[in-house]
Amino acid sequence: xxxTYTQLVNSGAGRNLARKLGLPQxxxxxxxxxxxxxxxxxVVVVGxxxxxxxxxxxxxxxxxxxxxxxxxxxxxxxxxxxxDELEHPADLEQPVLSAAGSLRDLRAGGRVIxxxxxxxxxxxxxxxxxxxxxDGFLRSLAKExxxxxxxxxxxxxxxxxxxxxxxLGAIRFFLSSRSAFVDGQFLTVSSPDGALPANTDRPxxxxxxxxxxxxxxxxxxxxxxxxxxxxMLVLVDIPAAGDQLAAVANEVRGxxxxxDISGADAGARILExxxxxxxxxxxVVHNAxxxxxxxxxNMDHSRWNSVININIAAQLRINEALLAADHFRSSxxxxxxxxxxxxxxxxxxxxYAASKAGVMGMVRATAPLLAASGGTINAxxxxxxxxxMTARIPFAVREVARxxxxxxxxxxxxxxxxxxxxxxxxxxxxxxxxxxxVCGQNLxxx
Length: 446
Ligand code: NAD
Prior knowledge:
CATH architecture of the largest domain: 3-Layer(aba) Sandwich
Structural class: alpha/beta
Strand content: 15-25%
Number of helices: 15
Bound molecules: nicotinamide-adenine-dinucleotide
Number of domains: 3
Largest sheet: 7 strands, parallel
Order of helices and strands: HHEHEEHEHEHEEHEHEHEHEHHEHHHE
Strand order of the largest sheet: 9-8-7-10-11-12-13
Mean pLDDT: 94
CATH superfamily of the largest domain: NAD(P)-binding Rossmann-like Domain
């Protein structure tokens, strides 16, 4: 699980050698620690609209060093382009080229964020072209940035502005080191709901969260991250993983529930356990998942069915129970773990990709049902994450797979966990039915 190459090229001799040979030079990413500054260096807000002014004023109240114009040669922490009034592709030129002039001054690990409006549903072809243009611009720019810098976009639906709580929540997430491995992605803010937490280091204070597949890997890290952010935890895993589950539960002072999520009563048992041990349930993270890879020509019933049952059918059944429950009605949050395999496809994974694409379809269709009670459901789609699972991939294949993204390295379980913690927080209350990739802008497929 150690990325020796990244360590090597960040040492003096290794750095010089990689540069001379034209080899990838993955940066050591800045990752979140409570108490660290949100951004290192000034933040330039580019754009002349009233929404750009309001955002700049809001960012000042976060104690950021905000500029409306870059000072030449001053090292920058972030550049935010507010593009909310685009009517024609020609409108892109001024803000984009203004930002271009500051790119060389962006610090290592810096951030570029666009704030614009979605193209879908716009009747003017020119306005739709301009809005869609931001998509291509941002994704290309993300591929040009180096030294751990990222570029991501916030899309404001009708009825939301740059200062809607969830727009600010998304901007804050993309600015922060919590989003270290999220690159080249857009997040749509669909309603003005949500609230920024009083304590930004403990945004889940007082919440009760259930995490499935929590005995190891990404699930165990999700539990640690939600605990650090203030949540009380119900940790779910199969009885065979009971000892590991108990160890994680002790570590995060949560309660363990040994349960196969594919059982017919799994939803009822999670609800009952949370009610008895914690008095409530606010957040459910569907993380448990399995792979049973085979080319389709060699696929058997058992491999196909076990993956579909555990990875998607169980989530559908548990969600039905959650939606019908009385004590999952106060701004509930569901976050599902999908995979970039479900977006781009992967050889040997027809069953897995069908299940993970299914998760995305489920999330989009369930979103309106949760909105009725002020709740949300979203998915994260991890790319190559450094886990026991990916450590078992043969060396050469693994080495290629982990470099095939804009950040030229694999992500960590913590990167997936940070994104889930954000989507589970009140700051994301206006983000519903979204799939956010945590893949360092994987270059393969979508
Ligand atoms: P893992 O195999 O290390 O952990 C999965 C956990 O789920 C295990 O503790 C397992 O016991 C539990 N589990 C399996 N079936 C269960 C069931 N029926 N009921 C209850 N618990 C069950 O896997 P991981 O790498 O930590 O992956 C976690 C999630 O992230 C999965 O949904 C996986 O598909 C997804 N994912 C992982 C990667 C990656 O690179 N590792 C990439 C994309 C998506």
